[in-house]
TrEMBL record:
Domain of life assignment: Bacteria
Protein name: Na(+) H(+) antiporter subunit C
Gene3D superfamilies registered for this protein in UniProt: 1.10.287.3510
Disordered, as annotated region: 106-140
Membrane topology: Multi-pass membrane protein
Naturally occurring in which organism (per UniProt): Serinicoccus hydrothermalis
Pfam short name (any one): Oxidored_q2
Transmembrane intervals: 6-23, 30-50, 70-93
Length: 140
């Protein structure tokens, strides 16, 4: 079996560019990265499905080998899931724009506080400040 090197290169570039965009703080750029990665993975499924053949319908073959319908079904399912995720992330971005006039994902201060507390308990390198940054009160 011979694999088309151009398709492999295109799929690799799509996945790589998608991963780069997916790591962005902007919801729209992350969405574009998700779409690029999804298309790249779908292309990998098509490449990995093997050589083309007759349609996988009983009685429609011309004597040659039939194409495997499983990768085609997986790609179709992935397209539907990608469409649903796109609609969801667009709704999140629209709501973020309505509320804050910005689509950047803010830092999670609670997660940073929990991480700092965990490091202080594990390593005891530096003492952890138990006060809450927003109110200045002692944390429980």
């Amino acid at each position: 079996m011979s694999v088309n090197l151009t398709l492999v290169l295109v799929a690799s570039v799509l996945v790589g560019a998608g991963a780069y965009l997916f790591l962005s703080r902007s919801l729209i750029r992350a969405l574009m990265g998700f779409l690029l990665m999804g298309n790249g993975v779908n292309l990998f499924f098509v490449i990995g499905s093997g050589p083309p053949g007759s349609p996988p319908i009983v009685g429609a073959e011309d004597g040659g080998p039939m194409a495997d319908p499983i990768p085609q079904a997986l790609v179709l399912t992935a397209i539907v899931i990608t469409l649903a995720m796109t609609a969801f992330v667009l709704a999140l971005a629209h709501r973020s724009w309505q509320v804050a006039r910005d689509d950047l994902v803010p830092d999670d201060t609670e997660s940073a506080r929990i991480h700092a507390r965990s490091e202080a308990e594990d390593g005891d390198e530096e003492a952890y400040d138990e006060t809450d940054d927003t109110t200045g009160e002692e944390a429980r």
